């Protein structure tokens, strides 16, 4: 699995495992300064084929998808597209009812996975997140919800959509309307809890006094795909859907920790029309969201399960790998300013030939949170995974934790209790198929440098506008290790506007490939690292010359980064999946025309812009990126 042997210096460094907490790491950081943990130790040999085989794409503000020469795109599916044989055709004006939306592709597609058909290379299922709503386009009146019907339509437009896709004789992938596998999993669909917090007092409500049957999923950001063929959807900004009609309500510390706002913190306004989302009436409903949810796309009747062992926070994605002894390891970021990076290690081993046993793997195991050194401000150092287990490391009743269920429900508080490292908004995490190193986008953080968020080596810039990508190698190249060494793979910046300063970015950023706010992140099987952005697309000031949001591709060994794709006006590029033969790449175009100015993908003035999944192919049918 993991091929690169550590150097002698690395072995020496990695053997220093005596520190016990974040406060004791400064010495280790100084010791490590100058050790070759970065790409110089892993330089690609001169005889190997270059990993990046396409020409860099210039920044653009065009309202289309721009690709390198020799590439083309097709739109696979867009918001409002009818899923079933009897679903209503999309009208383009926001006039659909909630009931009609339930039979159509959801809004704001985000993370997605492709599940190859067992015995047919031209057939697959895709599970695609529908994160949140663009109300100016979703609702005909163009305002935030003004009625229960509006809220019901929003709830019908979010969650996850499962679709069947097929490749035609010309090599183009097409969505199959009417497939019995097509399914919308939305905010009012009955689900189940699994894991240690199932049935916990904090998960019980009037509607579910046992605390075992949550309703719905929403704010589904990114994703994961298990080795046993299920989909993981990750609930991110769930608190944006809650609020209260009671303006006098005092928020609890736990509610504040998840950034709940009485007036809803967003334009959802669900709490005004759907009592379930009023935290004064149903305070525990909030605790039933913020989880990773496991879905079987091959069984349209299956009940999704919220896997509580993976912790409750604002989940970005779930990057899955196996430990050396075959246990399942899930890396997860919590995307809010100053929040943490986590990993789950299963108790039991993955069994390739025992599908039933694998369905319980994510219910038993340990959740860990990352603690990095780096007070020296060196862009490399060591770190430790601190186990979040009730009774250990101060996770005790005197500190407000009554049992393991509460540790998981209040995972952020547990992370703070063990002094985990506050990061610059952890977004996606990806594990290299070549050497097992783990990469995490830290998208930006305007609060860095303020109270409680001092600069450190992994988060080295105050008012971080551009973001960076953190990378770590687990000790012994074992994903279940309790310690690791890390460095920064890239520090984004603008070397034209800020030459010679920290905001110019690292050496692998130049005027031709600069970007801000890395977010989506995935490896293809050859080890190319694909980077998607969700950043400032003003193309001015600090962001001059960066153009629209985009997708880049990096060679992890040389550090080279090339721009591969630029999206249409106002979008972010998010979500990526590959056909099994890698002759097609599926990417997500989310919220084109946010704030106006786009007619993607229909390019007809009477049609509203709409989020879409797009398929990228090469004219010569070759492997994407090669
Ligand atoms: Fe849904 Fe952190 O992006
Ligand atoms: Ca994201
Ligand atoms: Ca983002």
Concise summary:
The protein is 9% helix and 27% strand. The chain is mainly β and 626 residues long. Residues 1-47 have low confidence and may be disordered.
If you had to describe this structure to a student in words, what would you say it looks like?
The model is unreliable at 1-47 (pLDDT under 50). The protein starts with 7 loop residues before the first helix and ends in an 8-residue tail after the last strand. It is mainly beta and 626 residues long. The radius of gyration is 23 Å and the shape is globular. The strands form 5 sheets. Strands 12-13-14-15-16-20-19-18-17 form a 9-stranded antiparallel beta sheet. Strand 19 and strand 20 (483-491) form a beta hairpin. The protein has a single domain, classed as 6 Propeller (Neuraminidase). It has helices spanning 8-14, 26-32, 98-101, 135-138, 148-157, 253-257, 270-273, 355-358, 404-409, 411-417, and strands at residues 71-78, 109-117, 120-130, 159-167, 173-175, 183-185, 192-194, 220-225, 231-235, 292-295, 305-307, 319-322, 327-333, 341-349, 365-372, 380-387, 426-431, 438-442, 468-474, 483-491, 518-523, 529-533, 550-554, 561-566, 572-578, 585-590, 612-618. The structure holds MU-OXO-diiron (FEO) and calcium ion (2 copies). The site of one calcium ion has 7 residues, from strand 8.
What topology emerges from the helices and strands here?
Blueprint: H1 8-14, H2 26-32, E1 71-78, H3 98-101, E2 109-117, E3 120-130, H4 135-138, H5 148-157, E4 159-167, E5 173-175, E6 183-185, E7 192-194, E8 220-225, E9 231-235, H6 253-257, H7 270-273, E10 292-295, E11 305-307, E12 319-322, E13 327-333, E14 341-349, H8 355-358, E15 365-372, E16 380-387, H9 404-409, H10 411-417, E17 426-431, E18 438-442, E19 468-474, E20 483-491, E21 518-523, E22 529-533, E23 550-554, E24 561-566, E25 572-578, E26 585-590, E27 612-618
Parallel strand pairs: 7-11
Antiparallel strand pairs: 1-27, 2-3, 3-4, 4-5, 4-6, 8-9, 9-10, 10-11, 12-13, 13-14, 14-15, 15-16, 16-20, 17-18, 18-19, 19-20, 21-22, 22-23, 23-24, 25-26, 26-27
The protein binds MU-OXO-diiron and calcium ion (2 copies).
One calcium ion binds next to strand 8.
